[in-house]
Amino acid sequence: MKKFIVTILSYLMATFLIMFALDFGYTKVYENAKPRTKFQYFRSLKNKQFDCVFLGSSRVENGIIPTIIKEKTGLETLNMGFQASKLNDIYTILQLLKEYNIQGKRIFIQIDYIYNLKGNSKILQYQMIPFINENEVLNKHFKNNSEDYFGYNYVPFYRYSRNDLKLNFREILLSIAKKKTNAMEGNGYAPKYGTSKNHRLTLPTELEKENVVFDSIIKYIEKNKINATFYCAPFCYHGKNMEFIAKLKNKVPNFYDFSRAVSDEKLFQNSNHLNHDGAIYFTNIFIDQVLLKNNIEE
Amino acid sequence: MLFNSISYLFFLPIVFAIYWMLNARKLKWQNLFLLTASYFFYACWDWRFLFLLMFSTGLDYFTGIKMFEAKSVKLKKFWFFASIFINVGFLGVFKYYNFFIESFEDLLTNFGVTSHFWTLKIILPVGISFYTFHGLSYVIDIYYNRIKPEKNIVDYSLFVSYFPLLVAGPIERATHLLPQIKKKRVFNYENAMEGFYQILWGLFKKLVIADSCAVYANEIFDNHQSMNSISLLLGAVYFSFQIYGDFSGYSDIALGTSKLFGIDLLRNFNYPYFSRDIAEFWRRWHISLSTWFRDYLYIPLGGSKGGMTTKIRNTFIIFLVSGFWHGANWTFIIWGFLNALFFLPLLITNNNRNNISIVAEGKMFPTIKEFFSILLTFTITTFAWIFFRSNTVSQAIEFIKNIFKFNVNGGFQYLTFDRYTIELVFLLLLFLFIEWISRERVHPVFGKFKSLKVIAIITMILIFGVFSEAKEFIYFQF
């Protein structure tokens, strides 16, 4: 029996060593690889300066075109909208701007029904997980938002195993082979094409009474003297409970309501996402009503 | 509790440690503990069905003794049929009641009669098909005087509920398992290590092969309308490997676990995809079920005795019953029917026992004839698996129709989880190579360089295993 236990323990030790080695190797590859995800692209922008930085969900990612802003206003713009982002994710990205020393003279935060949503974006999570130990902000993000925090933080290779469909050996090989993705194109803008038929959308009826994350964002903005502007991107006209946005307007400071700014259904890919034509249209509206207007005022 | 779950990772060493600590005392304490652990293992899934398991166990224990003590043939028959009726009745209610009702309703609808019978909203108790078959074999063996009834309720209960085989087999026989339960077990290092190696290889098959294939096969089957012929073919092949990796992986873990406790279970798989004909395939696939049907259904029906008509009838009966045993769906019945159909030419030409030995034994490569025989067997097996995997018969037919449209537009299609359909083929070729060179052994870790192989398998599991979602074993639903 003793021999058996010793043998099994040796295999267990070997397993841990392999896990350590794999974790180390995978992390090194992700840290040093050319960006293949949007978050890696974000990391690669350390110490850079931008005039405008847009934060939010896919409604930012698919709706704001930095190249048009640059063309029309000369303002260097970064679109840091991440798919399925909630306020937790926005708060983390906001803090990471400082952590990575990515300077944005003006920060635009898209806010809508996500005000009421808890949790975080799983898509962004798998993109961030290789860097969990890179800084306090990321570590805290997982501590507050992930049930798997213990495993992610303390068990070697667990983070890659749990996200194996995204962060697997295939991805490592592609990173080593420097296979490009479109993550670095368009300063973070990702277009959507086509128009789906179902344009129905139902917003919540009431605002959440207490929102700790939103309060933290406001405090952070005030504390760090960030020039932040909130806005709501366009929704399709068939939306229900649109009065929710009016309630949001009372709660959120420095808020621009563009929820009804686009009336043509053909400019929407679905009820809450603009397609590429819609993004061009809306970016121009945004330039005219916010960026140029404020520049003149300044 | 799943074999591939974290909880099992804690459960197994604890049970193992206590079990062997009790060894110094008495066998009865060891068995009682193993039975308690088995009930706990089952209760982790749904404690309410533990009572059903206990009732089924008690019923067979009681009727077994009553049959043996019966002073007249009539009384013996009474207890025998009482046991069969109740056992099959439970299986019928939990597994087949809704199927019969719904099929009857469909039939009436075809005749223009609208009906709505009472269906049951019940969960299928996990492992019911397996433990019912354990009990049935025990009762049948007593009835035919092959064995004597087990008087010790703990030992008998352990025979039915022994946790490594409780939920998905192998389907044990009282003649094989009960004597081991009644014998004092002594810890044997070599045996325990073999168990560990087999568990590891089972985990590889489950986590690396089956679960990877599941990701692809699910995507392709669920979206078969938008897939081209290449993707559909690959989807069917992936499912063939998924079900093999899943079930044989489970069986390896079960056998390996049992070896840790000093108990040998029946071998359930023997490299079935290297079979040269469908008869050989069925001697190598789910062996414990095939032999169960052979011994308790085929032979009592007359087996190969009698004329060709009887043989053909019996063959169709066992394949159809086998299909129905898997699930209450016409897809399984057609799957069984197809296998009977594939078997038929071999039966008629009396060639069903041609390939008994290991293919290309002692050689590296098969002959061209062997290679094409293996390929043909795999192809027809995969064809039948399409019915097994599909949710409905019409889905399976549509899937097959789309394959034969020979639409290759888009080549190797890109799937929603960012992979090309072809990508998994390389891993499967590696798996096939490992299995091929190991086909003369129980499993690939056997033989030389064990430590090296263990390290390689662990590394492969970590790198290629699917951990993002613990997938249940397919056979749990049966």
From TrEMBL, chain A:
The UniProt record lists the keyword Transmembrane helix: yes
> Which residues are listed as membrane-spanning?
6-26
* UniProt keyword terms in alphabetical order: Membrane, Transmembrane, Transmembrane helix
Domain of life of the organism encoding this protein:
Bacteria
Supply the name of the protein: DUF1574 domain-containing protein
Species for this entry: Flavobacterium dankookense
**What broad taxonomic lineage does this protein's source fall under?**
Bacteria, Pseudomonadati, Bacteroidota, Flavobacteriia, Flavobacteriales
Automatic annotation (TrEMBL), chain B:
Keyword entries, A-Z: Acyltransferase, Cell membrane, Membrane, Transferase, Transmembrane, Transmembrane helix
GO MF, one annotated term: acyltransferase activity
Gene Ontology terms: biological process? alginic acid biosynthetic process
- Annotated GO CC locations: plasma membrane
Q: How does it sit in the membrane?
A: Multi-pass membrane protein
**Localization (cell):** Cell membrane
| Residue ranges crossing the lipid bilayer per the database entry | 6-22, 34-58, 78-97, 118-144, 371-388, 420-438, 450-468
* Keyword field contains Ribosomal protein: no
Which residues are in coiled coils? none
User: InterPro entries from the entry?
Assistant: Ac/AlaTfrase_AlgI/DltB, AlgI, MB_O-acyltransferase, MBOAT_fam
Pfam families referenced in this protein's UniProt entry, alphabetically: MBOAT
Q: Which family does it belong to?
A: Belongs to the membrane-bound acyltransferase family.
Q: What is this protein called?
A: D-alanyl-lipoteichoic acid acyltransferase DltB (MBOAT superfamily)
